[in-house]
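Question: Send over one sample?
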Amino acid sequence: MHNNWAFSQLKQAAPNISAGIVSADFMHLAEATSELSAAGVAALHFDVMDGCFTPQMTGGPPWVKGIRHENMVKDVHLMIRDPLTRLPEYVAAGADVITLHAEMNGDLGSALDFIHGAQNANDSQRGVMCGLALFPETPLTALEKHLDQCQMLVLLAVDPRAGAKQPPLEMIAERARAARQLLNSADHETLLCVDGGVKVENIDAFAAMQPDLVVSGSALFKGGAPQQTAQTMLKGLARA
């Protein structure tokens, strides 16, 4: 059995941020990730989209493999069709966390089992943490069958299939409360992540949802001061 380094790191750092690097300026990515790490950001978040499961298309395994920071968890969110056949590539690319969608095509249970049994490419003593994501309109009941197979529940606060449209924050908050109740009733510990639309202006509202992790992209990278922005957001999360 491999140890789950990523789970321990994220739990210890909670509440924290996973930085969505799809929004980053890749000409200055190394500098930005160093600033984020210095601010205390725990993870780098890779939104992997194939243009089929969602309309957008981003990078694949080489993109994931080519970007890393020694002190940050590599958090890979797969929004691709039938990811089971592609999982070995993302494990080999160094993913510390792989999040699948409850709405995916194919055998979700087998895909989750594969992640549980995977050896981390960054350290053979580590495993790979398993996340399970839901689009905003998917009911929480969709994950009940597989809740015991995931270590992090990811609630999308925006829908990438609809131009990143965000529901009202009140709806997201209600969903997060219901998710937390569900996780508290489970027989094993599962982290709660809220993904999308997180920025300085609404960090208090997201903090009140009591997530262990939030995913923020453009808010961190577009202002030109990622370290300062991250510090402000982390302070906001800690106030809850």
Summary: Residues 5-239 form a domain with the TIM Barrel fold (CATH 3.20.20.70). The chain has a mean pLDDT of 93.
